[in-house]
Amino acid sequence: MLMAPLTVEVRRGAVAQLGALLADSRVATSGRVAVAVGAGQGDHISSMIAPTLGEAEVFRVPDGSVDSAVSLGADLRKGAYEAVVGIGGGKTIDVTKYAASLTGIPMVAVATNLSHDGICSPVSSLEHEGGKGSFGVPMPLAILVDLDFVHGAPPSLVRSGVGDVISNLSAIEDWQLGNVERGEPIDGLAVAMARTSAEAVLGRSDSIESDAFLTVLAESLVLSGMSMVIAGSSRPSSGGDHEILHAVDQLYPGTSNHGELAGIGAAFCFFLREDERRLSLVADCLRGHDLPVTPGDVGLTAEQFTEAVMLAPSTRPGRYTILEHLRLSEAEVRDRVEEYVRALGH
Prior knowledge:
The chain is α/β, with parallel strands linked by helices.
C-alpha cells in the first residue's frame, strides 16, 4: 500500500485553501487546530490565515532546534489540539513535524520556500548541542505550497532546493552500490520517484523566477520526500553527498545551507565515481541556478573539505556509499579534492 498525503496543492494563493482543508474530518473532527509559524514571516502569515482559521492558536517557532520542537510539543499537548499546521521554511516545518510526532497528532505542512525535501519527508533535521541530527517522524498529512510566499522568500533558499533534489541522483547510485557490494535490498518504486524528481529539474532552462519552474521544483521535493516514506529510510535521497554535508555542518556550522551543500556533495561524489557525463550535467545544473559547485564557493578550503570528507562516513554509520567503498586515505582524499577544484573551479 502506498502512503500519500491527502492533499498536495502547489499554486499561488494556496494558503487561502487552508480553512477548507482543515474542515475535512480526516484532519480534524471538531476543528481544534494549532498553527506554528516561523520567526520571519510569522505576523504576516498569521494575519493572512486569520479569516479562514478563526480562533486557531498561533505558536512561534524561534529556531530549528530540538528544544523548540519539544517546547512546541508540550504546548500542543496542553491544548489538546487535534492537528497542527506548520507554516514556513524548512526549519519551521521540521520543528512542527517533530512536535506533532511527540504529541501524536497529524500535521499539515504549508511551505513558504523550497529549500529542501523536508516538505514531505519522514525526517526532521534539527539542531542540538552536538550539532545537527535527523529524527524519524510521520509524513505530513497534507501539503500546501503557496507560490506567492515562495516568490517572496530569499532566492538563495529557494535555489538550494535544486541542490537537494539533484543530489538524489548520487544517493541512488550509492544505494545501487550497496545492493551490489552488500546485498542491500532496493525499493524500485522509491528509486523511481527519487530519480524522476531529480530528472524533472536537471535539464530545465528556466529558473525560480518562473511559476512553472517553481511548481516542478515543489512537486519534485514532495516526490523526493515520499520516496523516503516508501523506502522506510532516507536511502533514496541521501548518500555520500549528504554524509559530506552533515560532516560540514558538524565541523563548520553555518558554512552554508542544506541544499547548497547537498549539491556540492553530489558533484564531488560523481567526480569520485569518475562519471564525467553525470558530473557535467550536475555541475551545469548547479551553476545554471547560481548554486555553489566547489568548496571555495562556500568559503571552505581544500583542507577543510578534505577533513569533512574524512569525517563523512561516521555521520551515517552502516550506510554504504562511494565514500565507504573507496576507503581513501586522507592524502588520497586531499589529492581528489584538489583535482576536483582544478577541474570544476573557474
